[in-house]
User: Fold this.
Amino acid sequence: MILRLDNPKLFSDVVGIISELVSEVKIKVNSAGMSIVAIDPANVAMTVFVLPAPAFSQLEVNEETIGVNLDSLKAILRRCSVGSSLIMKTEDNILKLEIIDRIKREFTLALIDLENKDKPIPNLEFTTKVELSSSDLSEAIEDCSIVADSCSFEADPGKFSVSGRGPLNSANLAYSSDAVYIESPYKSKSKYSIEYLQKMIKGSKLTEKVVINFGNDYPLKLDFRTPLMELSFILAPRVETE
Assistant:
C-alpha cells in the first residue's frame, strides 16, 4: 500500500476529531479510497469517515485493512505543516509515514491487531433534516452546556430549536426557515448527550455547513462534507427514566 496526500491537514484534523471518541480504529483502503467505521466503547456513538480516491495524489493498493492507535497517529500527523506532503506505506506489520517539506521526516507506527467484528452502519429512516451553519450549531451546544448535560433538538414545519434544561436554569435557541434549511413534515423531538455533541461538533472546523438528521426519540446523525471528505456521526438518543 502506498498513499500520498499533498494536503494532509484535513486528514490530520479528522484523526484528531475521531480520537475524541475512540482510541483504536480499523482503516480500510481500496481503489475507492480510505474509510473508517468505528463505535465508541459505550456503544452510544458511531463515526463514519470517507476519504475518496480523488483526495489522494497517489493511491496504490488492492484492498487492505490496518489497525492503528489514533493517539499515536495523531501525534505524527501533527508534525505536518502547511505545504507538507504525507506518504503512507505498509510493510509487514508497520505503517511507515513520510512527511515531506523542507525536511523529509520518517516515522514508523506499529500496527495493531483488532479482532473486534466490524459494526454495520445502521439503516436509519429520519423524519427531519436541518442544514445550518456549523458554527451556529457549535454555539448552540455550548450555550446549552452552561445549564444542562443534555440538549433537545426539536423541529416543526418551518421551525427548529436547540434547548437545554437543568434543575434551575434553561437555554433555548430558535431558528426559522429563513435562517436554516428545514425539512420536517411534522413535529420531531429528541434529547442527546452534550458531552458527545461537544466532541462531534469539532467537525465544524472542517466545513461551514452541517446537516442534521433526527426524528422523534430517535438517533441523531451529523454530516460534515466537502468535495474530498465525508465525516458523519450517529448518536443514540438519551431516554429519561423515571
Remarks:
- The chain has four helices and 18 strands.
